[in-house]
Automatic annotation (TrEMBL):
Name this polypeptide is given: SDR family NAD(P)-dependent oxidoreductase
Protein's UniProt keywords contain NADP: yes
CDD domains: carb_red_sniffer_like_SDR_c (cd05325)
Family: Belongs to the short-chain dehydrogenases/reductases (SDR) family.
Species assigned in the record: Paenibacillus anseongense
Length: 232
């Protein structure tokens, strides 16, 4: 499979990239500064021909268009897109103190970026039997989530869930699967040291979903990394 992954240089995105190439897939590894990224360069030499780092800022439509043009010029199709890049701003900040720019930026990275990427990748996803779009979401975006606060993050993740639902309907007749996925609370820069979850396990579960190794009800669009349905 040819898989586009955003934010592939660290955290869950890096583990997704590693899990995918270990299983023989090719990854177009979106990364804001690929020349500087040692993690991805190390994967390029460990898995020759399987990892292609590309400059991709999900908020910069020009970088997305450049990627689409390069893939088209190379006659490459895309089997799967994993919208992984995300930011968590305004943690613990009272609403009365919250800079609205944090809300705007959260929507730019967590919602508009994924939408722009899909806009430009869909025309490259014309063929293939196991095509999929996986939007990495969070239980924070669930209407029934038990936590308060984190306004910018939570509502931007609710929005990506809604986008995923709409998109699932939109591409149904093209045979493309769409899921919003909660990866679990995992140890990354975002999740922090206290997180109980292992990003390697989460990444492998997500690649299992991509490879259709999990039984998921056809109506489900918001699931965890094990493929189990999440409450909306
Ligand atoms: P990290 O903060 O560890 O990594 C975030 C990644 O996103 C980095 O690669 C970062 O790149 C990239 N990124 C941020 N902004 C942009 C942008 N504008 N364009 C391209 N890339 C960007 O986060 P995690 O790995 O923990 O999170 C991955 C996903 O999982 C996110 O969507 C997050 O919301 C979700 N999630 C994580 C949880 C957790 O416990 N960790 C829990 C629930 C959901 P750079 O290095 O350039 O900053």
């Amino acid at each position: 499979m040819n898989i586009v992954i955003t934010g592939a240089n660290r955290g869950l995105g890096y583990e997704l990239t590693l899990a995918a190439v270990q299983r023989g897939h090719k990854v177009i590894a979106g990364n804001r500064s690929p020349q500087e990224d040692v993690n991805l360069l190390e994967l390029v030499s460990r898995f020759p021909g399987q990892v292609k780092p590309v400059q991709l800022d999900v908020c910069d439509e020009a970088s997305i268009v450049r990627l689409a043009e390069t893939l088209r010029a190379d006659k490459q199709t895309v089997d799967a897109v994993i919208n992984n890049a995300g930011i968590l701003l305004g943690r613990g900040v009272a609403l009365e103190e919250l800079p609205i720019e944090d809300v705007v930026r959260s929507f730019e990275v967590n919602l508009f970026g994924p939408m722009m990427l899909i806009k430009h990748m869909l025309p490259l996803m014309e063929e293939g039997s196991s095509r999929a779009i996986l939007n990495i979401s969070s239980e924070a975006g669930s209407m029934s989530n038990a936590y308060g606060g984190d306004f910018p993050y939570a509502i931007s993740k609710t929005a990506i869930n809604m986008f995923s639902k709409q998109l699932k309907r939109y591409v149904k007749n093209r045979g493309i699967r769409v899921y919003a996925i909660h990866p679990g609370w995992i140890k990354t820069d975002m999740g922090g040291e206290k997180a109980p979850g292992d990003p390697v396990e989460s990444a492998n579960g997500i690649i299992d979903i991509l490879e259709m190794k999990k039984e998921i009800d056809s109506e489900s669009f918001f699931v965890n990394y094990k493929g189990e349905p999440m409450p909306m």
